[in-house]
């Protein structure tokens, strides 16, 4: 089977699975909806609750996966994503500031400001003569995440009125989904995908080293800045609309790579579809795993899966990530 037929088959299968999980997710929940025989109440639940929620879950999953994939490319680090680089925590810090100040309408802008600030700090700390050091990047991400978490804890302590909503929001979930948020995030994701789509070959080339990439005509600094900004933008909107949902951008691209889809032109489109599928599946589990209509925060599920996978990667790839002269 040729590479083109192989990737086309993989995308077709992924689209089919995405459609199946979407139909399943909009019909299952505290109230089971029979799509062919709906009552007026079920119709309202479907169009005003389930569909916006499922679509937002899929878009957030795809956004976090694209963000994580870009971080892994430009940092040349298999453990890089919005969570491990501290961008998620920084974005959450900005979003919590917006909640405290009563600026919920422009919460994603605060999240973007926080995410870009955290990303800039991590990049500056981990860069040595223009080259990003993998282990330093991870440590810097931990430092920034810890600092952002401390600031968030301080703001929760100082804001008794909003502390419950802040805590629930930080766990991650799609309870506040709306068609407006779906359209905005869909636009951000589509533009980001179209912008980075032109750089597939450049992303593959910078996997070697900066010198080789520069000699091949790639403007490494410009590409890195573009990728960092797009990754932070997608993370900020995802955090702003769904709270902190960790490790999605780490797990999904690696699973796709394990299936031998490593070129950017194959990895990115397939990872986006798989990311959407993965997030919708996790949200479905969160809504149905508990009895009595109770709901488990999605962030708990993804962090549990991602934490185990992160540990697996650390053990398997430690010779590549930790080295001493």
Structure in words:
Helix 2 packs across helix 11. Helix content is 74%, strand content 1%. It has helices at 3-27, 40-75, 87-101, 107-126, 134-158, 163-170, 179-197, 200-205, 210-215, 220-242, 248-258, 264-288, 298-316, 318-321, and strands spanning 127-128, 131-132. It is built from 14 helices and 2 strands. A hairpin with a 2-residue loop joins strand 1 and strand 2 (131-132). It has 325 residues and is mostly helical. It has a two-stranded antiparallel sheet with strand order 1-2. It is globular and about 65 Å long. The chain has a single domain (3-319), classed as Orthogonal Bundle (ABC transporter involved in vitamin B12 uptake, BtuC). It starts with a helix and ends with a helix.
Concise structural overview:
The chain has 325 residues and is mostly helical.
Considering the chains and any ligands shown, give keywords for the structure.
two-stranded antiparallel ribbon, ABC transporter involved in vitamin B12 uptake, BtuC, mainly alpha, single chain, 325 residues, 2 strands, 1% strand
């Amino acid at each position: 089977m040729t590479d083109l037929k192989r990737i086309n088959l993989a995308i077709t299968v992924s689209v089919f699975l995405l459609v199946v999980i979407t139909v399943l997710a909009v019909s299952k929940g505290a109230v089971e909806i029979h799509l062919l025989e709906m009552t007026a109440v079920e119709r309202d639940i479907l169009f005003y609750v389930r569909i916006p929620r499922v679509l937002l879950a899929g878009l957030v999953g795809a956004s976090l996966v694209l963000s994580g994939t870009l971080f892994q490319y430009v940092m040349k680090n298999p453990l890089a994503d919005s969570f491990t680089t501290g961008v998620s925590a920084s974005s959450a810090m900005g979003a919590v500031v917006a909640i405290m100040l009563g600026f919920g309408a422009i919460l994603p802008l605060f999240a973007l400001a926080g995410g870009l600030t955290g990303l800039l700090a991590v990049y500056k700390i981990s860069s040595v003569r223009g080259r990003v050091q993998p282990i330093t990047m991870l440590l810097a991400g931990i430092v920034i995440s810890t600092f952002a978490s401390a600031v968030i804890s301080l703001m929760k302590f100082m804001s008794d009125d909003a502390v419950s909503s802040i805590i629930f929001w930080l766990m991650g979930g799609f309870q506040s989904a709306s068609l407006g948020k779906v359209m905005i995030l869909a636009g951000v994701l589509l533009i980001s995908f179209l912008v980075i789509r032109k750089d597939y070959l450049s992303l593959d080339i910078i996997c070697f080293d900066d010198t080789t990439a520069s000699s091949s005509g790639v403007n490494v600094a410009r590409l890195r800045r573009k990728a960092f900004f797009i990754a932070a933008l997608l993370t900020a909107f995802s955090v702003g609309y769904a709270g902190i949902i960790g490790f999605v951008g780490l797990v999904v691209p690696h699973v796709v790579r394990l299936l031998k889809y490593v070129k950017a032109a194959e990895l990115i489109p397939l990872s986006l579809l798989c990311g959407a599928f993965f997030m919708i599946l996790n949200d479905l589990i969160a809504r149905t795993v508990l009895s009595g209509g109770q709901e488990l925060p999605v962030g708990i599920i993804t962090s549990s899966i991602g934490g185990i996978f992160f540990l697996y990667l650390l053990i398997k790839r430690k010779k590549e990530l930790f080295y001493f002269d």
